[in-house]
Specification:
The complex is a heterodimer of chains A (about 180) and B (about 260). With about 180 residues, chain A is mostly helical. Helix content of chain A is about 90%, strand content about 0%. A two-stranded antiparallel sheet of chain B has the order 1-2. Classes of the chains: A mainly alpha (about 180), B mainly alpha (about 260).
Chain lengths: ~180, ~260
């Protein structure tokens, strides 16, 4: 400080002329800074930037893969859904066909059964009628003979003659009945 | 210093001898160390420490401190080197440009740090060394890229009728090979010298008004102190700006050397 005042009162220094120590230490300091940045800081930063871009790329790749997977799953699901739908349709179609077939069969069976029942009933009826007729024929003959015997006062034995007469009478009755029909 | 000045009576402003403090070590040898050199050592150590801590274990997802460090490094890498030189050449010259930027910044900043109060770059040595490095670098870049034709293309720009070369060639020579390094060095030096003198003036004047001015004239100290504060803030801006300008111009010179028309 004292020295600077001594200087300021007398001679002045040209600030543009470099002193040797100034140059030496400036160079030393700059070389230290340069070497430090060159071989220490920037390689670290470069490694970091590379790692960062790799990480970003990796993440993008991962995301792309995940998206692709999702798309594949969706396509698969859609295909399965369509398949299931088609299957359901065909099942429904088959069921409908089966149903109509069953109905037709049932109808046929029912009709057959009905006709069978009808014919049985008819036969039964015929048989009943026949039985009734036979029974009636005998009774009516006896009644008629009874009546006739009472009318003519004599007992007509059941001989061939009277039998023939009864038959004739019934035949007439039959024919008259048929004519009435 | 001011105490002495005021004890002698009148106000003594700062002089250029501010920048030539007495030697502390190795006096009168090429390794003489004074206050400013010590400040350079201190700032270099701080710079190395800061970036050593900041880039020691870098994480892919940066924390706050690492983000700041990266922001600073990206300023040089992206906004200066890669913008002007392109990806490939930018990477080639990146170590030098980064060292220039942060070196100049670290040497400029102590000009406003209380207790240090003088910029490491306010002695001609540091700006000169950097200017020489920039000078050698851009000539090297040109010679390497265009061996044989670089000097010719620089001194004899194509597309000019030959008689004009009598005028153009000396001008080109002077501007490229003389003026560029000198302006680089002087721009930085003078900014720092002027900034320091301005701050010293403001604060010594404050002290003088407070100590020796009669009566109400002491109030002037408030004004000079306010100016000192404002100029301190301004000097921070200048410190960053000069580091940026020095690096940018170096890059531009390299770019011009690389892109020389042929």
């Amino acid at each position: 400080m004292l020295q600077s005042h001594v200087l300021s009162s007398g001679e002045t220094v040209n600030p543009l002329l470099p002193a040797v120590p100034d140059l030496v230490w400036s160079a030393v300091v700059f070389v230290i800074i340069l070497v430090f940045f060159w071989f220490r800081v920037l390689p670290n930063v470069k490694a970091l930037l590379d790692a960062r871009s790799a990480a970003i790329e990796g993440n993008i790749e991962k995301a792309t893969a995940a998206q692709q997977e999702a798309e594949e799953a969706l396509a698969k699901y859609t295909a399965q859904l369509a398949e299931a739908r088609a299957e359901a349709g065909s099942i429904r179609e088959a069921a409908r066909a089966d149903g109509s077939k069953i109905i037709a069969e049932e109808k046929q069976t029912a009709a057959a059964e009905a006709s069978r029942i009808l014919s049985t009933a008819e036969a039964q009826l015929q048989a009943n009628r026949q039985a009734v007729l036979v029974g009636l024929k005998g009774e009516v003959g006896e009644l008629a003979l009874d009546l006739a015997a009472r009318v003519i006062g004599e007992i007509l034995s059941k001989d061939d003659k009277s039998q023939a007469m009864v038959d004739r009478f019934l035949k007439d009755l039959d024919s008259s009945e048929k004519a009435a029909k | 210093m001011l105490a002495e000045a005021s004890s002698e009576g009148g106000f003594v402003g700062p002089s250029i001898n501010e920048f030539f403090p007495p030697a502390l070590l190795f006096a009168d040898t090429p390794f003489e160390i004074n206050r400013i050199i010590l400040i350079r050592f201190l700032m270099t150590a701080l710079l190395v420490l800061l970036f050593w801590l900041g880039t020691r274990r870098m994480k892919i997802v940066p924390g706050r401190f690492q983000s700041l460090i990266e922001m600073g490094l990206d300023l040089v890498r992206v906004n200066i080197a890669e913008d002007l030189l392109g990806r490939k050449d930018g990477r080639r010259f990146l170590p030098l440009l980064t060292a220039i930027f942060f070196g100049v910044l670290a040497m400029n900043l102590p000009g406003v740090v209380p207790g240090l109060n003088v910029a490491g770059s306010s002695l001609i040595g540091f700006p000169l060394v950097l200017a020489v490095v920039a000078y050698v670098t851009f000539i090297y870049a040109g010679l390497r890229k265009h061996p044989g034709t670089f000097l010719k293309a620089s001194l004899f720009p194509p597309g000019v009728p030959w008689p004009i070369y009598f005028i153009v060639t000396p001008i080109e020579f002077f501007s490229i090979f003389v003026l560029r390094p000198i302006t680089l060095a002087l721009r930085l030096l003078m900014n720092m010298v002027a900034g320091h003198l301005l701050l010293v003036l403001c604060f010594t004047a404050t002290w003088w008004f407070l100590e020796s001015a009669p009566g109400f004239l002491k109030l002037f100290s408030v004004g000079t102190f306010a100016f000192g504060l404002i100029f301190s803030l301004f000097e921070i801006l200048v410190a960053v700006l000069q580091a940026y300008v020095f690096t940018l111009l170096t890059t531009v010179y390299i770019q011009l050397a690389l892109a020389e028309e042929h």
